[in-house]
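Title: Prediction job returns without error message
Component: structure pipeline
Severity: low
Priority: P3
Assignee: unassigned

Description:
Job completed but the reporter wants confirmation the result is attached to the right record. Sequence as submitted:
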Amino acid sequence: MPTLGNFDVRPRRASLPQIRQSLTMTGFVVFDSKSYDRNSLGPLAESAGVTLRFDEHRLSENTLPLVRKSVGVCAFVNDQLGREVIEGLAEAGVKMIAMRCAGFNNVDLEAAAEHNIRVTRVPAYSPYAVAEHAVALLMALNRKVIRANSRVRDMNFTLDGLVGWDMNGKTVGLIGTGKIGKIAGQIFKGFGMRVICWDPYPDHAWAEAAGCEYVPLEELGRESDVISIHVPLLPETHHIINAMSIAEFKRGVYLINVSRGALVDTKALIKALKNGHVAGVALDVYEEEEGKFFEDHSGHIMQDDKLARLLTFPNVIITSHQAFLTEDALNEIARVTIENMRRFEAGEEPLPDTLLGPSGPV
């Protein structure tokens, strides 16, 4: 099997007994790794002198034996990094967790601090990639692109049921105006849309310069033809889209979510789709995506009833958490992640704005 430099490019699917017999390597274990992770992280690690071990398993209590004798782990959005796992990492001697993503809601930062484990993330790998995917999802949903493509492949060139509407002149509501939300707003403005926004920390200078407007969340729901979500998942934002908020939305609204799945109450969303209050939904994330997204389940029966129900709606588009997946974003994720690993091993401070503490970024 091939190796490249000082890292192993082979995907690993060993049983736990086999795992326990192969724990002599040092460096960082890259959990939940895919081919694109190996291709982007590997060459930079080699040039930086950082040793990586790639593994396709997710990090959890069951896979803790993989980390023994490793200085650190590299984790992704669906890896489990609660207190029990953090304590297991500390017991194994792990001193660094490098998140190769922006979100960190799956990490118990207080437990990491208690055990003196450094936690870093990639705060902004490519806000353009995520924002552009949100717009692409809206356009595909509105203009029935997926349905139209399927018809044409069946030699059906009829246009019945494919009517959309002009984006120009419509109102889009942005829930969250961080880096991604702001870029999405600028793209929507380019279509001639009115952009209204809500954020707990509004940037009025940006809004004035961009021609956008901050409004209360309730007003955003009432006036928006499209709602696009761009807030992080925090206790305060969990199920920010719920039965009560949906009831206040304009009937016939389109909902776009490329942020975190648990921002949306899926049960309430299904009900709103069934009664027609929500006219269409495009999701790149799902609140119970762990164990489903990033994997091939084409040969199995879907056991998640809510996800299976969503997939039956003709006015629902779901992509499998791929909004970040561009070459530009992967290169930036690799650059920041590997540099922070190198700095850790050299006893240096991490890159600015990448260190996480008990209260979030520090």
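Comment from assignee: result matches the submitted record. The first strand starts at residue 3 and ends at 4.
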